[in-house]
Amino acid sequence: MYKAIGLNTTYNTDVLSAAVEYDFLNAFIFKIDYELEIFEHKDQAVYNTFDNANASLFYQRENSSWGFEIGAHNMFNTTFRQGNSFLNYLISDSKTYIMPRMLLFKVQYKL
Question: Rounded to two decimals, what is the model's pTM?
Answer without folding.
Answer: 0.76
